[in-house]
Amino acid sequence: MSGIQRVLVTGGAGYVGAVLVPALLDVGHEVVSLDTHWYGKDVLDAVAGDERLEILEGDIRDPEMVRKAMAGCDAVIHLAAISNDPSADLDEVLTKEVNLDAVKLLVDEAVSAGVKRFVNISSSSVYGVREEQDVTEDLELLPLTIYSRCKCDVEEYVRETSKAHSGFVGINLRPATVCGWSPRMRLDLTVNILTMHAWRNGVITVFGGAQKRPNIHIADVVEAYVQSLGWPAEVVDGEAFNIGYENHTVMEIAEMVRSEFADGEVDIIVTDTNDPRSYHISSEKISRLVGFEPGHTLRDAVRDLKRAFDSGSVQDWDDTRYYNVKHMLSLGVGEPD
User: Domain 180-214+247-279+297-330 is of which CATH architecture?
Assistant: First the structure.
């Protein structure tokens, strides 16, 4: 789509946002980052001096702040959320406010502001636990949690809004679990956790192991989000796309991580799990319709993480900002089980 210059990124200081914002600047966009900065204000320091970047601290539940952030924007890439199932379970009322109600407000304001394209970042967890060999976009969604139910409801709202308003292109993207290094690092995601445990402890603890976890390198999801601003409207309007690459079991990922360390340096211990989530997504549609192909492997992500750890990029492993649930509890959100 031509004419997209100024882009609002909600959650611009989050794990993916902190990589996406510089990427958008690199290809010439003006960017507005709207974030609560719950996890710190410094993650965009490397680009904070760029005159094309406006950094706003605010909440997507605040209509005035949303209108301020949206002013003059041609597109929205919506990342902001109470992210992942455990975090969302801490306070279901808050989760609904942020992950559903506020997003409907965001979509409505985007229409009113004349935004041309709204890229909604959903989740592959909307499929629930599946037995199909290839989980494709045309399968019925079977959300298991408040997090994935909100994602489903938002997808429907974006789709219906795009149908109702000519010139407003709504896209739903369902990424696999993201992995790799970010200035706003998360150490509570599968590949990142296993690599951290290997590096710090020489032991990887695998809970279960047989459940499949589709993963994708952070550089690849960022590239998909950047490219989505230019995909043909007639092809993508109202559509949903999986964004994945490698579907491995947790045990296979653990073995991959171990192989990046010296022989005998890392052990694997297997224990039971009460987390049944298992899904393996197909990314054939996004490849066929818009030509998107990932360029990085999970092994690349492990190597990037190990390199960052070796260089001392993580100074305090106990900093709660690396762990969403711990940090939300430190902010007074919810109570531990």
Answer: Alpha-Beta Complex (3.90)
